[in-house]
Predict the structure.
Amino acid sequence: MLGPQYSANRALQAAEGRASFVQQPCVAPLPRWYRGGAAEAGRDRTRETRVSIAALVWGVVFGSVGLSFFVYGKKHHAVVPLVCGVGRMLLPYVVSNLFLLIGIGVACIALPYFLRL
């Protein structure tokens, strides 16, 4: 019969990670809908992650510029900065291509300086 000393020793070994009886936590495999299915099984998603983070950062930058254009247009009753500001704030929700987002964003920022109504 094993005494309390044996169980205390095993618990100490388990806490230190030396015990052979310690099982790894059981992790269930991800469901197919979460993994992306069989078509995307071997695809590298590193580039997509970088692009989506860059699109997020550019969206925040252009969205804040759009908010400032909107506030300026509302205070000064100017239609062009107001419309460009609303368009700038909504554009990241519509455009998913990073280069198109930057191109339209810069054009929308420059538009009030060239178009005066």
